[in-house]
Amino acid sequence: MSGSSASAAEAAPAETHRTEGGDTGGSMVGNWTASLTLPPLLDERFVRCPLNAIPLMAIWLPGRVNEPFAASMLGTGIIDAHVHLYPAEVAADPAAWAARMGEPLWGALVTPHPARRVKQGWADHERLLRDMDAAGIERSILLGWYWQRQETCSWHNRYYASCVRAHPDRLSAFATVQAAAGPQAIAEMERCRDEGFIGLGELCPWQTAHSPLDPHWLAVFEHAVRLGWPVNLHVTDPVSHAFPGRVDTPLESIIRLAETLPNLPLILAHWGGGLPFHEWHPRARRALRHAYYDTAATPLLYDPAIYAAARAAIGGERVLFGSDYPLLVFPATQTEPNLAQVLNHACQPGLDADTRAAMLGANARKLLRLSPST
């Protein structure tokens, strides 16, 4: 994959803009306007419109952290639905850790290679919280990874449980399991439920099985339905180029899974590998009518026009903002994770205010049954 370049606005100094009041239609905001001092990585596309037209936005207050406007005004805020964290022991020597844990696929993705720049960044939960504050993000959903061994899944789940216990007002977590472990995977889901986890993922059944309809994986998904958990699946666009650690995820098998378990809430990562645009087909549209798509790693994978194109294909109610933090999704310019830069990229001018608000938080809040005080 090749990274996208940061826009000129991302490197510009902070500016002060003033919105113009207009017809409020009886809004409680009235004709108020506001002077907004923008951080360098949030450009005018995100804020230059009347306050009553933006249910979700971030106001930069000099000398303070970036505070979600909606958190104080509308009782809602931005939710990042796709974040990964790893303990310090992993970041210290990822290749050695992967070898020691028996995780060669993950090792292939993060190990430096002469032919490509590794795009994996690193952050602990304290760094994540600082970056969330800087970007105006209220809550992050921690996703596991599609580990090859159940022991690694359980280890990662315990780490996430400790993060959520420390910051329940800012962090939620999805569990990860390896279905090949059979009853152990189901038992781990039960333990995670008791620890307050709210979903399952990021999973990639194709890594160890030919299909998500493999009996072991079906048992896991059926248990997720019983728990009321949504499931986040890693999906690879079939036209993406080869790279170390790449896993093919045939799109037709996802449609078959949705047809087999129509009550399973699916979140298809990375725009579902292009599946929103297959929903023009009647079969895909019927099967995926309740599926959600997250935007994780969009700058690495697609042209920014995908936001408006997806809105035209499936509407605005089934897209979740996901950063794939701490992945370096702007590898040509990034050396450190930067949530504000990713959020700025997602705020494309082709999206109307309602669609942007839904993507940045309302859709995730509804699907995951979250409230600002959760």
Helices and strands in order:
Elements: E1 16-18, E2 35-37, E3 58-59, E4 67-68, H1 69-73, E5 78-83, H2 88-92, H3 94-101, H4 104-110, H5 125-135, E6 137-142, H6 150-166, E7 171-175, H7 183-194, E8 199-203, H8 215-227, E9 231-233, H9 251-260, E10 266-268, H10 282-287, E11 292-294, H11 298-301, H12 306-314, E12 319-320, H13 339-346, H14 353-368
Parallel strand pairs: 5-6, 6-7, 7-8, 8-9, 9-10, 10-11, 11-12
Antiparallel strand pairs: 1-2, 3-4
Helix pairs in contact: 3-4, 5-13, 6-7, 7-8
Care to describe what's here?
This protein has 374 residues and is an alpha/beta fold. The chain has 2 domains: 8-71, no CATH class; 77-368, TIM Barrel, CATH 3.20.20. 35% of the residues lie in helices and 11% in strands. It is built from 14 helices and 12 strands. It has helices spanning 69-73, 88-92, 94-101, 104-110, 125-135, 150-166, 183-194, 215-227, 251-260, 282-287, 298-301, 306-314, 339-346, 353-368, and strands at residues 16-18, 35-37, 58-59, 67-68, 78-83, 137-142, 171-175, 199-203, 231-233, 266-268, 292-294, 319-320. The chain has an 8-stranded parallel beta sheet with strand order 5-6-7-8-9-10-11-12. It has a two-stranded antiparallel ribbon with strand order 1-2. Strands 3-4 form a two-stranded antiparallel sheet. Mean pLDDT is 82; it is low at 1-75.
Q: What's a quick, concise take on this entry?
A:
With 374 residues, the chain is an alpha/beta fold.
Cross-sheet strand order for the largest sheet: 5-6-7-8-9-10-11-12
Q: Categorize the overall geometry.
A: globular
Per CATH, what is the topology of the largest domain?
TIM Barrel
Please give the alpha-carbon distance between the first and last residues.
37 Å
Strand content: 5-15%
CATH superfamily of the largest domain: Metal-dependent hydrolases
Task: List the total number of helices.
Answer: 14
**Class by alpha and beta content:** alpha/beta
Indicate the mean pLDDT: 82
Percent range for helical residues?
Answer: 25-40%
How do the helices and strands follow one another from N- to C-terminus?
Answer: EEEEHEHHHHEHEHEHEHEHEHHEHH
Radius of gyration using CA atoms only: 20 Å
Largest sheet descriptor = 8 strands, parallel
Return residue spans where pLDDT drops below 50 for at least 5 consecutive residues: 1-75
Counting DSSP E segments of at least 2 residues, the number of strands comes to: 12
Quickly give the CATH architecture of the largest domain.
Alpha-Beta Barrel
Report the top-level CATH class of the largest domain. Answer: Alpha Beta
Total domains: 2
